[in-house]
Write a structure and sequence with these properties.
This protein is an all-alpha fold. The protein folds into two domains: about 45 residues; about 60 residues. The chain is about 60% helix and about 0% strand. It contains eight helices and no strands. Helix 1 crosses helix 3 and helix 2 crosses helix 3.
């Protein structure tokens, strides 16, 4: 995850918990206006995920709405499902998934960010 992506995720999370842009700006050392811009970009990125994405514990990781390169690398282990991955203790996940050929920290961060995102939660909620 790039620094900007990390900031977007942070701002989105903090806004959802009711923190103002002024407070977020103070925490990150940026202006409230910049915090607002990061929030808008994060919301826009979430909206780009197709509404017909259904994520269950049986969804293969390689079928998640991730960058095409990340999906291609995850396709090396097509039997690894979301539920199996989430069942791995969080501190052990990186060592497990980084064993895949050409799967780096950027791919890991993208996967973790998606699985923790509201989009994934909303996709799961559509099933219920």
């Amino acid at each position: 995850m790039t620094d900007v992506e990390a900031r977007r995720a942070f701002v989105l999370t903090r806004r959802k918990s009711g923190v103002t842009f002024r407070e977020i700006g103070r925490e990150l050392g940026i202006s409230p206006s910049r915090a607002s811009q990061l929030h808008a970009a994060a919301v826009e990125a979430l909206e780009r995920i197709p509404p017909d994405v259904y994520v269950t514990s049986e969804t293969p990781l390689c079928e998640l709405p991730l960058n095409w390169q990340t999906r291609q690398i995850l396709a090396q282990e097509p039997s690894l499902m979301v539920g199996q991955y989430l069942a791995i203790d969080e501190p052990d996940r990186p060592s497990h998934i980084l064993r895949l050929f050409r799967f780096g920290r950027r791919h890991l961060n993208e996967l973790e960010t998606f699985l923790k995102s509201d989009a994934a939660l909303m996709a799961r909620a559509r099933l219920g």
